[in-house]
Known about the structure:
Layout (H helix, E strand, L loop, with lengths): L4 H20 L7 H16 L12 H23 L1
Amino acid sequence: MIETNDTTDLRGVIAHRAYELYQLRGGHHGSEFEDWLEAEREVLSAHSPAAAEPPAPKPARKRAAKTDAAAALRKRTRKKEEN
């Protein structure tokens, strides 16, 4: 299997987090596998597309208000041109 930079970077992030968890436990050996799995869960959930929130759509009222303001401006401009 060929690893890309993204995979290598992700492994590095997981390894770093696993080491942090190891240190938080006091640096005692014997739970490295559990630390790795926990770090993997945390990192992958933070990097998953589902974790990223899509941008909120603009409220329809604001778009309508802008359209109404533009229509009113056009109407005023036409009245000035007619006079």
